[in-house]
Amino acid sequence: MDSDTLLALCLSYNGTYEDHPFGEDTTVIKVRATPTSASKMFALLWITPNTTRINLKCEPALATQLRRTHPWITPGYHMNKTHWNTLTIRTGEPVDDRLIHDLIEDSYDLVVASLPRRDQRLLSWPPSEENVGK
């Protein structure tokens, strides 16, 4: 999975947008219900030649399990190590694209779950049964 695909996937969720508060080299993907509501980060993306890193929020028990199972998943760089993982994707090295997709979705869901219910409704979250997987 390349960096353009990662970014597009992150931006495919309701209410998401990219920001660059740390400079152009770091893309922060945030979610908010309206242009005037508070936003929260759910992904942080760094792109360098041949390597893309993405920080994603994760449930603590799953975060630990993923780190044990996948050497390219490590504790969140510059983040709370309990709740965030860093996925390091190097050109030419195999990664599980489906797992990455699921982890991005999980990160979005964890962050949106922490928003006020009004904002969750505006974001059409949680997704209805008929929309899951579409």
From TrEMBL:
Database matches in InterPro entries: YjbR, YjbR-like_sf, YjbR/MT2646/Rv2570-like
Pfam family, any one: YjbR
UniProt superkingdom: Bacteria
Gene3D superfamilies, alphabetized: 3.90.1150.30
The protein's name in its UniProt record: MmcQ-like protein
